[in-house]
Amino acid sequence: MNNQENRELPQTAPSLPLYFPVSPLKLIVMSVCTGGIYELYWFYKNWGLIKERENVDIMPFWRAFFSYFFCYSLFKKFHSTTIDSPLEKSISPVLLSTGWVVVSMLWKLPEPYWLISYSSVLFLLPAQAMANEINSIVAPNHDRNRKFTSFNIFGVIIGSLFFFLILLGTFILK
Asked: What is the pTM for the complete model shown?
């Protein structure tokens, strides 16, 4: 038996994921259509699950609100979960947190370059892929959160209209 087979992920109650489950497509669509607000929700949900699982005295809302300062710790949690697991790949907390913070802050650039900041969600995708793999091992029957709820669809419609107006104002109506 090799070392790999002896590794185990932390256990939670049956069918409870360790991290916030969401499909990559839904993460991208909701992030872009909400102007990045869904990313804050993503941080909030992950910190909430960590608080429950580890019984730590943290405030998920404030960790999400100040995600620039706490994103590294979250990515580090994802990474440390994979160290003692059968998963062969992991993420780089430094690279992902630095990339997410830098790209998120590009909203301060002049028109139209600030639109690059919408791509900050790309730095969450490797972490989410890792979270989805971890969740599949720990809670194989958990809700994968792939479907768009009526609230999600409402956000996509309103956000898409708003985004369209932004693009219209940036490129056409000058």
From this structure: 0.87
